[in-house]
């Protein structure tokens, strides 16, 4: 099952809020922290799994199949420069595998390689990651929908999440829309309502 709302998590975030976020209805968490050494990333992933799995949330690890396997996560999210989706599927047939995609053609390719969902974006401008391409826009979501469940990412807010879902995204992934808000749990509840 592809989550309706992925919250990206790093060591900089307030991990004590994770159980409350999961209880509020955040049904997916992606551990993404490129600054951590492998052992620390495994420890962070284990902490996230322990915090949110009781609520039934899915945990995937960005880029690192080895960390996902070592930490007992549910899956891995792979970018264009990471391990190939087909290789990850062969090595870990039971894991959820997501693939970063920026066009319908890339979504179709990811589906053929064995991905379970496509992380699609950036849909809107985002300040959470440097070096992103120009925003794709909501029409690109509609164009790419159909081959794989899409998880839209990039500048998504509670105000735009419903529009993205209506365009064909199965779910959305956020960072700032939760972690940069004065009340992250309240913000998560608004997002959960918007993607319902």
TrEMBL record:
Mg(2+) binds at residues 63, 82. Coiled coil: none annotated. It comes from Nocardioides kongjuensis. One of its GO terms (biological process) is thiamine biosynthetic process. InterPro entries: Aldolase_TIM, ThiamineP_synth_sf, ThiamineP_synth_TenI, TMP_synthase. Condenses 4-methyl-5-(beta-hydroxyethyl)thiazole monophosphate (THZ-P) and 2-methyl-4-amino-5-hydroxymethyl pyrimidine pyrophosphate (HMP-PP) to form thiamine monophosphate (TMP). Its cofactor is Mg(2+). Keywords: Magnesium, Metal-binding, Thiamine biosynthesis, Transferase. It holds the Pfam family TMP-TENI. CDD domains: TMP_TenI. PANTHER family: THIAMINE-PHOSPHATE PYROPHOSPHORYLASE, THIAMINE-PHOSPHATE SYNTHASE. The keyword Hydrolase does not apply. It catalyses: 4-methyl-5-(2-phosphooxyethyl)-thiazole + 4-amino-2-methyl-5-(diphosphooxymethyl)pyrimidine + H(+) = thiamine phosphate + diphosphate; 2-[(2R,5Z)-2-carboxy-4-methylthiazol-5(2H)-ylidene]ethyl phosphate + 4-amino-2-methyl-5-(diphosphooxymethyl)pyrimidine + 2 H(+) = thiamine phosphate + CO2 + diphosphate; 2-(2-carboxy-4-methylthiazol-5-yl)ethyl phosphate + 4-amino-2-methyl-5-(diphosphooxymethyl)pyrimidine + 2 H(+) = thiamine phosphate + CO2 + diphosphate. GO terms for molecular function: magnesium ion binding; thiamine-phosphate diphosphorylase activity. Residues 11-178 form the Thiamine phosphate synthase/TenI domain. Pathway: Cofactor biosynthesis; thiamine diphosphate biosynthesis; thiamine phosphate from 4-amino-2-methyl-5-diphosphomethylpyrimidine and 4-methyl-5-(2-phosphoethyl)-thiazole: step 1/1. Binds 1 Mg(2+) ion per subunit. This is Thiamine-phosphate synthase.
């Amino acid at each position: 099952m592809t989550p309706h709302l992925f919250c990206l998590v790093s060591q900089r975030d307030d991990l004590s809020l994770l159980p409350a976020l999961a209880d509020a209805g955040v049904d997916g968490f992606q551990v993404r922290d490129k600054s951590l050494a492998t052992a620390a990333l495994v420890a962070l992933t284990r902490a996230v799994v322990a915090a949110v799995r009781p609520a039934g949330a899915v945990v995937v690890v960005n880029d690192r199949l080895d960390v996902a396997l070592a930490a007992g996560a549910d899956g891995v999210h792979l970018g264009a420069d990471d391990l190939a989706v087909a290789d990850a599927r062969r090595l870990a047939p039971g894991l959820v595998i997501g693939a970063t995609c920026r066009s319908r053609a890339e979504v179709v390719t990811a589906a053929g390689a064995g991905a379970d969902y496509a992380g699609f974006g950036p849909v809107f401008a985002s300040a959470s990651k440097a070096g992103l391409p120009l925003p794709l826009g909501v029409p690109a979501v509609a164009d790419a929908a159909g081959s794989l469940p899409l998880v839209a990412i990039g500048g998504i807010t509670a105000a735009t999440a419903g529009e993205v879902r209506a365009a064909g995204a199965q779910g959305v992934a956020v960072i700032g829309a939760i972690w940069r808000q004065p009340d992250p749990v309240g913000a998560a509840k608004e997002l959960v309502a918007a993607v319902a």
